[in-house]
Structure formats: structure tokens, C-alpha cells
Write a structure and sequence with these properties.
Elements: H1 2-38, H2 40-59, H3 66-83
């Protein structure tokens, strides 16, 4: 009976150690990233970065290339035709 208890204790300890190395570190990394995203300072940095990118985009004369314009134009025209059910 003693041997069974010793083996069970050793297997349990090994399982906990392997779990911590393989899965626990990933969980801790995920928690750290989640805490960084929820921190007020980091949210403010993200908002500032988004505002800067919007300012850069507004400074550009054209947002889309000629190919992108054609693709979007034809796509939007098809959607409008599809939504025009009255005709």
C-alpha cells in the first residue's frame, strides 16, 4: 500500500510540474497580455496611435489605388443592384 501512495504522489507531482511548464506558462503569458490591454495607460496609447494613423490617412490625397477603386466600385454597384428589389 505504501508503494502505491508513493507512486501516486510522484506521478501527481510530475503531472503538476509538466502542466506548469507546458500549459501554465502559456496561461500566464495570456494573462499578462490581457492585463496590458486592460490597463488604462495602454488603452490611451492605443487611442493615440489610432488617431495618428487617421491623421496620416487624412493627409493622403488618394486612399485607394486604381485597381482597388475599380474592384470596390464594381462590388458596390452589384450590391446596389441586388438591393434594388423594387425594379
Amino acid at each position: 500500500m505504501k508503494i502505491f501512495i508513493y507512486k501516486t504522489a510522484i506521478v501527481t507531482i510530475l503531472f503538476v510540474i509538466v502542466f506548469e511548464f507546458l500549459i501554465g506558462s502559456r496561461i500566464n503569458n495570456f494573462k499578462k497580455q490581457l492585463n496590458e490591454l486592460t490597463a488604462k495607460h495602454n488603452r490611451e496609447r492605443v487611442v493615440i496611435k489610432i488617431k495618428e494613423e487617421i491623421k496620416k490617412a487624412n493627409a493622403k490625397e488618394n486612399y485607394l489605388s486604381e485597381e482597388d477603386r475599380i474592384l470596390l466600385s464594381t462590388f458596390i454597384k452589384k450590391i446596389i443592384r441586388e438591393l434594388n428589389l423594387e425594379k
